[in-house]
């Protein structure tokens, strides 16, 4: 009997076809009613789950008796209960590497977009306001030659640092668990404690995974340490920042601005951030390019097939 795969998001038709060559594939569809109900009904039959952005732990998976693998179409895996999956012998895989450059591009878009107030001035222009010369109060700030502080110099952090150093002549500071001498040499980057980074950077870019150590890493105290002229960029996970503290800092002009791709609750349909001109807000699109989502889908399918065929998947997350 063929094994069954239940897909819960980010599944492309090509991906589904590839999986159907080997397995039964169930894809909940809005045409068939409530997606959660369909997902929950199919769960007891599933040997594999594939998708992204769904919280999966003991509460959600108690009926998934046949489950062997969860193949996440994402690099981050903070929404899965890794301890629980491992205890039950369920493999968890992710899709690292293939989204590094597109996420770094997005981080840089947020740096440039916030510095030059792109979204704000686009809306201003389209509203027909350009009847006179721009006032100094509407000017942005330079990026070239400034100091870029990277919190978390992993793959994506290094790709952001490379753009900053080589493309924009920026001074690179970074903080994290351990210094990375090889990158220090290549990028002229300097390892500093987080507080020193916050006090000196013109742009603070958050690129850390979400875990118990990084939850609310940036709160009121850390925002107070930043320069009033500095911009905070977050492409990691929303809960790395205390969003209420950030909103207060932006409302009071204690920092210049924020470029955000991620939020404490997602999706986010209403927020005080939306009425703040100094907040540039995007809907979690770090990896959302045609090429990257395709590469992520391929990698997730590859991991799924390896796991269900009894091989060690390339991107196994469990210890
Ligand atoms: C990831 O893959 O974790 C990125 O946040 C894109 O969703």
From TrEMBL:
Residues 108-286 form the D-isomer specific 2-hydroxyacid dehydrogenase NAD-binding domain. It is an enzyme of class 1 (oxidoreductase). Its EC number is 1.1.1.-. The keyword Oxidoreductase applies. GO terms for molecular function: oxidoreductase activity. Keywords: NAD, Oxidoreductase. Pfam families: 2-Hacid_dh (PF00389), 2-Hacid_dh_C (PF02826). Residues 5-318 form the D-isomer specific 2-hydroxyacid dehydrogenase catalytic domain. The keyword Cell cycle does not apply. CDD domains: GDH (cd05301). Belongs to the D-isomer specific 2-hydroxyacid dehydrogenase family. This is 2-hydroxyacid dehydrogenase. It comes from Stutzerimonas tarimensis.
């Amino acid at each position: 009997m063929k094994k069954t795969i239940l897909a819960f998001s980010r599944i492309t038709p090509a991906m589904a076809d590839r999986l159907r060559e080997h397995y039964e594939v169930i894809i909940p569809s809005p045409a068939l009613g409530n997606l959660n109900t369909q997902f929950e009904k199919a769960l007891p039959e599933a040997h594999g789950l594939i998708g992204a952005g769904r919280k999966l732990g003991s509460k959600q998976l108690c009926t998934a008796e046949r489950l062997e693998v969860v193949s996440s179409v994402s690099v981050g895996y903070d929404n899965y209960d890794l301890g629980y999956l491992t205890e039950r012998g369920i493999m968890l895989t992710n899709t690292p590497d293939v989204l590094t450059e597109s996420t770094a591009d997005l981080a840089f878009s947020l740096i440039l977009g916030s510095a030059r107030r792109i979204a704000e001035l686009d809306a201003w222009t389209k509203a027909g306001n350009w009847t006179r010369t721009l006032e100094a109060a509407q000017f942005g700030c330079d990026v070239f030659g400034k100091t870029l502080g990277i919190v978390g110099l992993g793959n994506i952090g290094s790709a952001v640092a490379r753009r900053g150093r080589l493309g924009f002549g920026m001074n690179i500071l970074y903080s994290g668990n351990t210094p990375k001498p090889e990158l220090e040499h290549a990028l002229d980057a300097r390892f500093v404690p987080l507080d020193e980074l916050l006090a000196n950077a013109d742009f603070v870019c958050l690129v850390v995974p979400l875990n118990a150590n990084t939850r609310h890493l940036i709160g009121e105290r850390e925002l107070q340490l930043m320069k009033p002229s500095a911009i905070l960029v977050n492409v990691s996970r929303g809960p790395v920042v205390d969003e209420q503290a950030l909103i207060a800092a932006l409302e009071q002009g204690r920092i210049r601005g924020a470029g955000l791709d991620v939020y404490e609750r997602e999706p986010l349909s209403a927020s005080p951030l939306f009425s703040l001109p100094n907040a540039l807000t995007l809907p979690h699109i770090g990896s959302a390019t045609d090429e990257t989502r395709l590469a992520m889908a391929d990698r997730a399918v590859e991991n799924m097939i390896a796991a269900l065929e009894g091989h060690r998947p390339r991107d196994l997350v469990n210890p």
